[in-house]
Amino acid sequence: MALRTAKQYLDSLRDDRVVYYAGERIKDVVAHPDFGLRALENSRQYGHGADEDAATLALRTMTLPDGERIHRWLAPPRSREDLLKFVEMEETMPGDAHGAMAAGLTGLQILARKMDAKYGKSYTPRIDAYVDWFARNDLHGAFAMTDAKGDRSKPPSGQADPDLWLRVIERRKDGIVIRGAKTSVTSAALANELLVLPTHGMGSADADWSVACAVSANTPGVVMISNYAGAPWGERFRFDRPLSHSSFHHDATVIFNDVFVPNDRVFMDGEFEFTRELLGYFTTLHRTGVLIREPRGTKKLIGAAQLMARYNGLEGVGAIRGTIAEMIQTAQLLEALRYTALNRVQIVEGICVPDPVACNLAGLTVSGTRESYVTFLCELCGGPVLTAPSGLDLQNPETADMVKKYYVGKAGVGAEDRLRLVKYIYDLGASDASGWERAAGVTAAGSPGARRVAVGRGFDLEGCVKMVINELS
Ligand SMILES: Cc1cc2nc3c(=O)[nH]c(=O)nc-3n(C[C@H](O)[C@H](O)[C@H](O)COP(=O)(O)OP(=O)(O)OC[C@H]3O[C@@H](n4cnc5c(N)ncnc54)[C@H](O)[C@@H]3O)c2cc1C
To answer: Are strands 193-196 and 251-262 parallel, antiparallel or unpaired?
Structure first.
């Protein structure tokens, strides 16, 4: 199949999938006023399909050895060049990121080879065929990993209700039946395919929960309940919410009510001892997301701080310069980590994996600094970050002149420019959307705790102790 167009992607979502949102079932996720916005944004990834302009095709697509052109986000990076191109593509893409889905498929391709070598299974041809089919049909995927979990101190097999972690409840000749729920699945209701992966490293008692498979979004038994994100404020508030006025993001709890999965879609069933390694590859590849957003995200905060200080005539104040200097150190550190992550790569089973320590350190650096930088921005704005008149009052002839008179900055800085920046900072640090960003930044690609574990993995702690013992002796 050729590259899909935006229309083909949107039409593919009208497939009788079961989606609930804000207390009711949505029959058509494309026509829905909130969901439709995100579907439309995603559809821009597809555009005119093979008739896109040459620059976009060069950025977003690649050619398979047999000449078929596919979207780059559907193919695992096989070389450092592939990885760099993937990162470059994701940096400019509207709508859903594809790093997690690519990471899941890639992690499974690596592990399939290892599981087959150990057990003589045939996961490798299955996952390779699935990845090929997925790419050639130009599908949109969501990864469904995070289990409901229940009592977090206990493994899946220790839960009062065994369904709290998704599990295999029946094995048939032609496939398996799964039951459970995956939470926080980004854009599940706007995907064609759901990739189910185990959340944690499993023990021997947890073989039934050690399952990875692919399920189409409209498979009987799949029910999606989306979080209520609320209608975005809309175009009218473009000035007041420059970052979020028309954006809509949704995550769904995906419930698998005894869903049959045919054998050719089952990529792990019971091989609990491989789950930890799978997670290692998955999280490393997934966390390249932070390299995609950063250091650019931190640089934007620096730009906003410097500009606000300039507008207010405070650019030369020592304390402000000191904090901006700290922010610059963080941005430079993130650049260095990005460089390390994308250069200290490993080729594992033919897949290019970025440096896990650098990826996870970048994530920890952002989650440990962003909050205080955003607070600093709010401080620089002063009260207007919350209290300034709206852009609508700038347009209203009855109030415009008064707002323009009293919201100027230093000489030469007009009220409109200054308020535009104040609203930008509001949307970064004080709006409803900024609260979402703040919480998402903490856990979206794994909690800081998980990242710390990843950073410490393989570190020679006892070697450090020995160094001191040697110095003492
Ligand atoms: C915006 C957003 C988008 C997301 N998108 C996706 C997606 O597309 N697909 C997907 O599968 N997931 C997704 N996630 C889920 C995300 O990966 C998880 O939120 C994250 O891994 C944490 O898991 P949890 O939410 O179940 O929290 P929990 O596991 O309940 O963790 C809560 C806290 O408790 C701590 N904790 C948990 N267990 C233990 C323990 N045994 N010992 C000590 N501390 C513990 C954790 O470190 C954490 O700080 C998304 C999350 C967000 C916020």
So the answer is: unpaired
Q: What's the Cα-to-Cα distance from 421 to each of 43, 314, 399, 438, rounded to whole Å?
A: 30, 15, 20, 19
Indicate whether 1 belongs to any domain: no
State the distance from the centre of ligand 1 to the C-alpha of 443, rounded, in angstroms: 6
- Domain residues for the domain of 120 are 6-278
406-417 pLDDT, tens digit each: 999 999 999 999
Query: How many domains would you assign to the chain?
Result: 2
Contacts of 135 (CB under 8 A, 6+ apart): 64, 70, 71, 74, 75
Q: What is the CATH number of the domain that holds 453?
A: 1.20.140.10
For residues 144 and 66, state if they share a domain: yes
Q: Take residue 296 and report the two structure tokens written for it.
A: 């650019």
* 364 and 398 housed in the same domain: yes
* CB 153 less than 6 A from any atom of ligand 1: yes
* Å from CA of 445 to ligand 1 middle: 8
Measure 283 CA to ligand 1 centroid, in angstroms: 13
Q: Using 50, 70 and 90 to split pLDDT, how confident is the model at 442?
A: confident
Which pLDDT belongs to residue 248?
A: 87
Q: What is the DSSP letter of 390?
A: P
182 lines ligand 1 (CB under 6 A): yes
What's the pLDDT tens digit per position in 69-86?
Answer: 999 988 888 899 999 998
Domain CATH code at residue 190 = 2.40.110.10
Q: Do 154 and 200 touch, CB atoms closer than 8 A?
A: no
Alpha helices in 168-212 (DSSP H): none
Q: Tell which residue, 269, 344, 264, 280, has the closest CA to residue 107.
A: 280
- Minimum-distance ligand 1 atom for the alpha carbon of 187: 8
Q: Quote the tokens at residue 3.
A: 């590259």
Burial class (CB in 10 A: 0-12, 13-18, 19+), 89: buried
Quick check: pTM over 0.85?
A: yes
Q: Does ligand 1 have an atom closer than 6 angstroms to the CB of 154?
A: no
CA of 258 to the centre of ligand 1 (A): 24
Q: Specify whether 238 is located in the same domain as 315.
A: no
Mean model confidence pLDDT for the chain: 93
**What is the CA 24 to chain-centroid distance, rounded?**
27
- Measured in Å, residue 151 CA sits from the centre of ligand 1 at 13
Nearest CA to ligand 1 atom 47: 449
372 CB near ligand 1 (under 6 Å): no
